[in-house]
Amino acid sequence: MTKIIVDPITRIEGHLKIEVTTENGVVKEAQSTGVLFRGIELILQGRDPRDAQRYTQRICGVCPTSHSIAATLNLDSAFGLDDKIPDNGRIIRNLILGAAHIADHILHFYHLTALDYVDVTKVANYDGNDPALNSVKAFVQRGELAPFVPRYEGDYRLSDEMNVAALAHYVKALEMRSKAQEMLTIFGGKMPHNMGVIPGGVTETVTVDKIASFLWRLNELRDFIDNVYIPDVLAVAEAYSDYFEIGVGCGNLLSYGSFDLDGKNADLTKRDRLLKQGTVSTDLKVSPLDTNKIMEHVKHSWYADSSTGKHPTKGMTEPQFNKEGAYSWVKAPRYDGKVYEVGPLARIAVTYVSGDPTVKNLVDSVLSKFNASPKVLFSVLGRHAARALYCKFTADSMPGWLLQLKPGEPAYVDYELPDESNGMGLVDGARGALGHWIEIKDKKIANYQCVVPSTWNLCPKDDKGQPGPVEQALIGTKVKDENNPFEIGRIVRSFDPCLACAVHLITPKGKTLGIYKVC
Amino acid sequence: MTEAKVQEYPVIWIQTASCTGCSVSALNSVSPTIKNVLIDEVIPGKHVNLKFQATIMAGQGHAVIDVLEEVPKIHKGGYILVVEGAIPTKDGGVYGTMGEKDGKAVPMASRVETLAKDALAIIALGTCAAFGGIPAGKPNPAGCISTDELLKSRGINKPLINIPGCPPHPDWFIGTIASVLVTGLPNPEDLDDLKRPKVFYGNLIHENCPRRAYFDEGKFARKFGEPGCLNELGCKGPVTHADCSLRMWNHGTNWCIGAGSPCIGCCEPGFPDLMSPLYQKLDDANLPTIGKLPGKEA
Q1: B34 within a domain of the structure (yes/no)
Q2: What is the DSSP letter of A338?
Q3: How confident is the model at residue A477, as a pLDDT?
Q4: How far is A57 from chain B (nearest CA, A)?
Q5: Are B178 and B63 within one domain?
Q6: Predicted confidence (pLDDT) per residue in A286-345, tens digit
Q7: For chain B: N or C, fewer Cβ within 10 A?
Q8: Is residue B157's pLDDT more than 80?
Q9: Residue B295 covered by a domain
Q10: Least CA distance to B64: which residue of chain A?
């Protein structure tokens, strides 16, 4: 038995430790542990409900926009606005969220993931005349290689030519993700932490110059997605095709859907969305979403066992340090008692199985290229491919939305703050299903609860002893070189972890979040 | 002809109780780009040698913790420490740890202390690192403190530059780094009372706001999307020091008030508690005397 501890896991958002135990080189046990707590939900208590959109974005500076949308949908529902948002407001929110996801997915593939597969040092052999590559070559020749070394050594499989091309794209992608954030700020004011999305709609007004400016940045990004991002994902997939069978995970996928195509249906679980709501398992059958089936387990988390098995709106949080058998601050959310993975793979799979023709074409074209069946989607490479295809599907949908905007018409509807109310906001953020719940008393936040994507994906075992999705993806993996355990980083990063999100809800010793009522 | 050797400036960038938003904002730097900063000689003959930055560095696990522990020995007194995030200190700092030593998790507070002790200077990047920010908001569940407070509590006397903002504008950070490379550490008169570079934080948003004429004329937006000064909607521009209104954000594309949103005062030590409720109009008594509030005397 060998124990491998990777702490910190870098190139993710936040602070994560992964510990695996191997026997004859195969992972037998895996533990995922978050190591930072801030307690944003406690900080929200007693504050003006409208401030939740601003505060919850600060849960995460990589995916703040997803939190701004979930918080705002939550507040819309608490304020009785969930069927009253003007179309301009609904569409601008979609454009803001879409821009954020494009920026985020480009960042994830090139800047967080690529260094697991691409050998930057190969640029030393470059003899072409691309100025960007020659500047990186000069950097390598100077010999101070931080932050690209230290790194794991060994399993880099791309040809010299592909390594150099990927490096050029790494540099180009820095510019493109930045451009996607610029595009967002046309309506969102600034990034990270947009200012535009508020309950009632958005702050910005619609003018033709903004539409044109957005459209032409978008066209440049679509060009990059089609001709650089997707081909690079496929090239990595060819060279590392064994990763279609590595990191399979729990086999259950959950999506809240994203991008409201209809602002009139107040039920977020049934509202018409571009990406669909529901669950899909390896049998590839879709089931409708029922948020009453969500429960949080704490047997292996540092909380009192008496608080286990509650719906988020009824959840109690009673920390208990050093509880026997516990190893994480993250609770273990379960859907219908089972382990579920969330993320781009989940929303693409649910939309694919729901029969959306565009998504079906996109997914089938990739599968046929590898002569593979949909079951390979449940893998490291399946997650990367789904993320890239989702990015394309979203970007391709945005020009149509831009043209639906009506300059001069309102993008915001005014409202009165209620004395008492409850709300729920659901959206698929960049990293997956994101839920916010609020309880308002005396026009103030009595309770605020978030169940975020990385809580689903990076959770510990539940009360029945079922390991979380990342843990299951690690278990059974053959680690070829225990001194350079590439497999661990590649599997964990395929989920795009966001730990600041996952452990935002931890409370300090002796405090509780209180008891929620069902909203 | 032999080329002059490029001078390396080691930098350690540590993330504590943060959301990584400051890092993402730095990636948005336009001129220079983040690639220019990390790969090229950002100032001719001078290269920023980013030894540790968890969001982008290739390595992971003990290999990068080794870097964190070796750099202060190899470059004693010669590296810049960047702190991103507030520092959890409650219950011995157990709420935020980074890596292990002798089988025990090391509190972030200890990491910052050790790294600060041997640094040339420290940059507190973002409002959390500079003043505590959102994680230090009431009731401050993790006992988060600012970098300045940590240094004082551990008796460390090193030059400190605060670059607040939630997040800070990339120009404020990269501009400060460049100025250290070109002219050395800032003189005391270059910083304000809160250790912010005056070149970026010397004026109030309100002083240079494009909606200032509305304020002077008493034309106020009463709901979002209306033209007019955003004072009635809770704008904190009159009490916030930053050059956002002139510099604008994300390649000069837009900024908070430009998008019709009131300023939330994210660069000030009072963020978030003294700025909240964010949409509540400031007390007139708090307004600086740079412009009288029309209709007040009448």
Answers
A1: yes
A2: B
A3: 97
A4: 9
A5: yes
A6: 999 999 999 999 999 877 898 899 888 886 666 666 789 988 878 899 999 999 999 999
A7: N
A8: yes
A9: no
A10: A150
Query: What's this model's pTM, rounded to 2 decimal places?
Result: 0.95
Closest Cα in chain A, distance from residue B189 (Å): 30
CA angle B256, B262, B268 (to 5 degrees): 80
Per the listing, tokens 């032999």 go with B2
Q: How far is A366 from chain B (nearest CA, A)?
A: 29
Per-residue confidence band for B2, with pLDDT thresholds at 50, 70 and 90: very low
Phi (first) and psi of residue A218, to 5 degrees: -60, -40
Q: Which residue of B has its CA nearest to A174?
A: B27
What's B273's domain CATH number?
4.10.480.10
Domain count across chain A: 1
Residue B71: which CATH number?
Answer: 3.40.50.700
Q: Is the pLDDT of residue B246 over 90?
A: yes
Using the beta-carbon criterion (under 8 Å), do B261 and A195 form an inter-chain contact? yes
Q: Is residue A396 a part of any domain in this protein?
A: yes
Q: Which of A90, A151, A431, A490 is catalytic?
A: A431
Q: What is the mean pLDDT of residues B165-169?
A: 98
Q: Hey, which residues 58-117 in chain A have their CB within 8 Å of chain B?
A: 58-62, 64, 107, 111-112, 115
Decide if pLDDT at B108 tops 60.
yes
Which of these three, B199, B216, B246, is where a domain ends? B199
**In-domain check, residue B238:** yes
**Residue A377 neighbours by CB distance under 10 Å:** 25
B69 in contact with A at a CB cutoff of 8 Å? no
Q: Do B19 and A60 touch (CB under 8 A)?
A: yes
Same domain, B15 and B153: yes
Of B178, B199, B220, the residue at which a domain comes to its end is B199
- Asked whether residue A370 carries a pLDDT value surpassing 90, the answer given is yes
Cβ contacts of B78 on chain A, cutoff 8 Å: none
- pLDDT band for position A514 (cuts 50, 70, 90): very low
* Structure confidence at residue B271 (pLDDT): 95
The pLDDT assigned to A303 comes to: 77
- Chain A, chain B: beta-carbon pairs less than 8 Å apart: 274
Cis geometry, peptide bond prior to residue A199 (ω within 30 degrees of 0): no
Instruction: Name the residue with tokens 């940045």.
Output: A217
Please check whether residue A254 is in contact with residue A341, taking contact to mean a CB–CB distance below 8 angstroms.
yes
Domain holding A222, by residue range, is 2-119+156-502
- B95 close to A (CB below 8 A): yes
- pLDDT (0 to 100) of residue A502: 64
**A60 is annotated as an active-site residue:** yes
| pLDDT above 90 (res A376) | yes
Q: Are residues B228 and B266 in the same domain?
A: yes
Asked if A147 lies within 8 A of B47 by C-beta distance, the reply is no
- B178 and B86 within one domain: yes
Same domain assignment for residues B278 and B249? yes
The answer to the question of residue B296 being in a domain is no
Q: Which domain holds residue B83?
A: 7-199
Specify whether B270 is located in the same domain as B165: no
The first and second tokens of residue A17, run together, are: 């430790």
Which of A4, A5, A6, A7 would best serve as a mutation to test chain B binding (most B beta carbons within 10 A)?
A: A7
Residue-wise pLDDT tens digits, A180-218 = 999 999 999 999 999 999 999 999 999 999 999 999 999
B99 touches chain A (CB under 8 A): yes
Do B272 and A55 make contact, defined as CB atoms within 8 angstroms?
A: yes
Domain count, chain B: 2
pLDDT digits (tens, 9 = 90+) for A129-165: 999 999 999 999 999 999 999 999 999 999 999 999 9
CATH of the domain at A306: 1.10.645.10
Residue A333, in any domain of the structure:
yes
Is A513 among the domain residues?
no
Active site (annotated) includes residue A498: yes
Distances in Å between the Cα of A58 and the Cα atoms of A68, A191, A451, B135, B239 are 9, 12, 15, 9, 21
Any catalytic annotation for residue A63? yes
